[in-house]
């Protein structure tokens, strides 16, 4: 059994079905950029490796979903900052983080701030809400999302298209997966 089949076998059937349709990828990506706290790459990589000829379509679908989700949160920030966004941030204890991000968005570095947050593994929800709250240019906001997430998703597509056929037949021993998880958690703790 290949590593892709092993990964798919531990996912619920509805996740597998969603991940194998472009609309499903768009929906999952929109959810990931708004409310779903799971990195989309955990689903994208196995699907792209399993279907390297469709990797570009999958990456584009993820990019479209991300931009749509980002625009939803941008609009939420622009239209409902006081009645919804600010009380929710207080409830989650994220008010100071939000203030820090909105300060960066207002000082003329909107593109760079959104780009850096969206290309990194950090959740981008505060940046998308903040861009709406401060009334940032929607065109610059969307351009930053397309550039940053385009690099992430289309870069994965290129890697899957190039190396997917070779990876498809590989199988990782369980200890290698466990070591990888520990290393990624340790890196995450050190970085953040």
UniProtKB/TrEMBL annotation:
Coiled-coil residue windows: none
UniProt keyword Transmembrane, yes or no: yes
Transmembrane segments: 23-48, 60-81, 172-191
InterPro entries for the chain: DedA_domain
Source taxon at top rank: Bacteria
GO cellular component, one term: plasma membrane
UniProt keyword Transmembrane, yes or no: yes
UniProt-recorded name of the protein: DedA family protein
The organism of origin for this protein: Meridianimarinicoccus aquatilis
